[in-house]
Amino acid sequence: MKTKYLIVSALWLLSLSINAQNYSFKPQICAFLEYGYNYTWAHYGNAELQVNLPVNPYFEANAMTHLSTANVYSFAANARPQFPLSVGKIYLETKFTYRAIVRNQMQDLSAAFSIGYQMDYVRFQIGTYSKMFAEFNRNLHSNTEIFIEAPSLLYALEIWVRPQDNPWNINLRIANYNDYSIERMWQPLFALGGKYSLNNNLAIIAEAELKPTGMFHLDASFYGITTRAGIAYQF
User: Each residue of 135-153: pLDDT tens digit?
Assistant: First the structure.
């Protein structure tokens, strides 16, 4: 019985190695321009740049920066081991986000860990995160405190109308986070987006997002709206 398990494990590792060798590494760069409005910042514009690195079928990573005319600057990085199944895939995601809200002389740092399952038409993700707040110019000699939130729930549900490899697609997402910020579990973000592939390398992407207006998890009864459009180039 032990020999049988060793043989099965060896064959599984061999199949992983073969799949990795046959995998074609195709990094992707995405650039977006955004327009938004809310009661906190009024009218504002954003520019966003993303770099996606699908290293092999079992691991991918990405990094992004987000600059706003509201004098808010965000950076994020994700690492995602993933495990293909006969139907869909399971993945583990580690996410870090940092925001420098210069206009208010504040900053926050978030760390999240989650597990997800993705198929052609649906993706579900659940995990936990924590967030730290501090004054922007704080140093080791400052008298101000650093505020650390207790771990809370991270979640996402995303639905597509077409399979993932289709040249065009439309998606609907409900989550308490986006690429560069994480909100409280009872303040979900709603997003409607779409993509259209012009060829094997270039695609057009557009999205509209409804999200809480308040900063630093302060309660807000009015949701802000952000629209963005951009291109994705895959090498």
Answer: 877 666 666 678 888 999 9
Q: What is the pTM of this model?
A: 0.84
Most confident of 22-36, 37-51, 115-129, 182-196: 115-129
The token pair at 10 is: 């060896």
How far is 35 from 68, CA to CA, in rounded Å?
10
Number of structural domains found in the chain: 1
Q: At residue 20, does pLDDT exceed 60?
A: no
CATH of the domain at 71: 2.40.128.130
Check residue 177 and report its DSSP letter. Answer: B
Q: Tokens at residue 98, please?
A: 């940092």
178 within some domain: yes
Cβ(146)–Cβ(132) below 8 Å: yes
Instruction: Return d(Cα 20, Cα 54) in angstroms, integer.
Output: 11
- CA–CA gap between residue 120 and residue 69 (Å, rounded): 36
- Find all residues with CB under 8 Å of 226, minimum gap 6, and list them: 34, 35, 36, 46, 208, 209, 211
